[in-house]
Design brief:
The chain contains twelve helices and no strands. By secondary structure, it is mostly helical.
Length: 295
């Protein structure tokens, strides 16, 4: 009996270890491919030109390999998205945590998670065929492809992530802190904004940064609705191209494998990986710092 239990335990432990190891190996393989192909790219293109050139035209006869226009488009759509997602998501989290009844919370939170499960290609066509024509009624100079419309839709798409994670962090704050604030005469809004929100700041900050990472890495919405014109601009009304949209463009199959033009997607992907990795490190650091403060 004991031998059978030990064998079963060993098998379960082995399966769990294999699962964990496989995820690590897959991640290492992806990073290894990125590094290998990116190294081949930088053998032909100077790193300085890649980081400072203001034109990105690797598929044209006059080739330029400056990543700045792609990151400008990525930054622009991300700013618009977070301008929508952060305040709405935080307000939703405060309502669910401090104002909503258990019945309302139990129904609204799953509905938010269902919104997060909608395929991103649906959001992309929603931005192109509904939001952009709607915005053009109020903004006459708005182009058919722009960063404002996909940015707004990306913000709507990210709201469930910010709201759900922030609400979990706020809900974990001990009830004694709320009761102490109420005993001192604080209103419910004051308790929410001056007691609960600061106490849950580590989780809320992590939710914000995770939302930013989600916006930076979004592909289909910007590929469909933002256009394919890399330009160094902060004007949200004109067509732009993001890093992910460019990767989709080259990956369609028209560019021969192994060429310098094909390797540009790995250089762009490596740059995007570096940015999201830095955001994750920042999220971990913030979470650790505020956890130490409030412990």
């Amino acid at each position: 009996m004991k031998l059978g239990r030990r064998l079963k335990t060993r098998l379960i432990e082995g399966a769990l270890f294999a699962s964990a190891l496989s995820s690590v190996l897959i991640t290492a393989g992806i990073v290894g491919v990125l590094i290998f192909e990116t190294a081949g790219f930088f053998k032909e293109v100077p790193l300085w030109d890649f980081l400072t050139d203001t034109q990105w035209t690797p598929l044209f006869l006059d080739k330029h390999f400056g990543i700045l226009p792609l990151f400008a488009g990525t930054f622009l759509t991300t700013v618009v998205a977070m301008a929508v997602a952060l305040p709405v998501g935080t307000a939703t989290a405060i309502y669910l945590s401090e104002y909503a009844s258990e019945r309302v919370r139990a129904s609204v939170k799953p509905a938010l998670e269902v919104l997060a499960a909608v395929p991103t290609v649906v959001f992309g066509y929603f931005a192109l065929l509904f939001v952009t024509p709607l915005l053009q009624r109020f903004i006459p100079g708005l182009s058919g492809f722009n960063s404002l419309s996909p940015g707004i839709v990306m913000g709507i798409m990210i709201i469930p992530i910010v709201a759900s994670l922030s609400e979990d962090a706020m809900h974990a704050i001990p009830m004694g802190l709320r009761e102490g604030a109420f005993a001192l005469g604080a209103t419910r809004l004051q308790v929410a904004t001056r007691v609960v929100l600061p106490g849950a700041l580590s989780g809320v900050a992590a939710a914000f940064i995770l939302g930013i990472s989600r916006a930076v890495g979004e592909t289909m919405v910007v590929a469909i609705a933002a256009g394919q014109q890399p330009r160094l601009t902060m004007n949200p009304l004109v067509p732009i191209e993001t890093v992910t949209a460019y990767i989709v463009q080259v990956s369609l199959g028209d560019t021969p494998t192994g060429t310098l033009e094909f390797r540009t997607i790995f250089a762009a992907g490596m740059s995007l990986f570096a940015v999201t990795f830095a955001l994750n490190i920042l999220s971990f650091a913030l979470k650790k710092r505020f956890r130490e403060v409030y412990e």
